Amino acid sequence: MLPCRFPAALFGLALSLAAPWSPAAAAPVKSVVIVHGAFADGSGWRKVSDILSAKGYAVSIVQQPLTSLGDDVAATRRVLSLQTGPAVLVGHSYGGMVISEAGNDSHVAALVYVAAFEPDKGESLAELAGRRPVTGAAPDAVKATADGYLYLDPPAFAGAFAADLPPADAAFLAHSQVFAAKGAFTTPAGDPAWKSKPSWALVATADRSINPELELEMARRAGSHVRSVEASHAVYAAKPEAVAALIVEAAEAVSH
């Protein structure tokens, strides 16, 4: 009988087919995609980005238009399509609505919610916010333009959004904010990615834009790994180290 000669290439193929495969197991997660919230843009994430970049992560920040939830999800998927490996998808505030849907993309290995909404299917931002209004919030802080875009009244901006930032920084944010289409806040969410992918949530305990109790309630419902920090809604600018640490925690957890 002739000796069996099993080609090395076929042997390797057999092993690969026998072993379970997952994106997280195939490559470490070293990409981070960040989705900002309403009444802001991605520039406020510079400190978080710098911290992550110094740790070897490739960071992309989505500058979504805030014209509709669908447009913002599409903008996020556009950036995700450019990633060369698995990514952690991060969302702040309204950005949580966006990543819950965009997170179903195959590039996404984990979700991180930062002082953010974590909707279930059919829930809108307006509906969720109405369940637990913010205690002590300034009445009529959110204004509307004639063509249906919403913004935070500049005199109320610091108290509602960035109370722990230097006054000059909060004032600059107030006067450089991105207006959001009213319809983005009333559109029902689709199937949330947190039902099929691991998620983390950072609760800002001094938040005056989203009730911290609501942040915690949504995070627990989603089964997110919850962390908390005493910070305003602009926690990414006020406590960038804490935000970056949670993103790293998520990336490392899905890399093993």
SSE series: HHEHEHEHEHEEHHEHEHEHH
Total discrete domains: 1
Radius of gyration (CA) equals 20 Å
> Strand order within the widest sheet?
2-1-3-4-8-9
Distance between the termini: 45 Å
Query: Approximately how much helix is present in the residues?
Result: 25-40%
Do you know the CATH architecture?
3-Layer(aba) Sandwich
Mean pLDDT level? 91
What is the CATH class?
A: Alpha Beta
Which outline best applies? globular
**Mind telling me the CATH superfamily name?**
Alpha/Beta hydrolase fold, catalytic domain
Strand content: 15-25%
* Number of distinct helices: 12
Largest sheet: 6 strands, parallel
Helix/strand/pairing category: alpha/beta
Uncertain runs are: 1-25
DSSP E strands, number: 9
CATH topology: Rossmann fold
Q: What do you see in this structure?
A:
It comes from Azospirillum lipoferum. InterPro entries: AB_hydrolase_1, AB_hydrolase_fold, Sec-Metab_Biosynth_Hydrolase. One of its GO terms (molecular function) is hydrolase activity. With 256 residues, the protein is an alpha/beta fold. It has a single domain (28-253), classed as Rossmann fold (3-Layer(aba) Sandwich), CATH 3.40.50. Helices cover 40% and strands 17% of the residues. The protein contains twelve helices and nine strands. The chain has helices spanning 8-18, 23-26, 46-54, 69-80, 95-102, 125-131, 154-161, 167-175, 182-186, 212-222, 235-238, 240-253; strands at residues 31-35, 58-62, 87-92, 108-114, 142-144, 149-152, 180-181, 199-204, 225-229. Strands 2-1-3-4-8-9 form a six-stranded parallel beta sheet, with helices on both faces. Strand 1 (31-35), helix 3 and strand 2 (58-62) form a beta-alpha-beta unit. Helix 3 (46-54) crosses helix 12, helix 4 crosses helix 5 (95-102) and helix 7 crosses helix 8. The longest helix has 14 residues, at 240-253. The protein is globular. The protein starts with 7 loop residues before the first helix and ends with a helix. 43% of the residues are buried. Mean pLDDT is 91; it is low at 1-25.
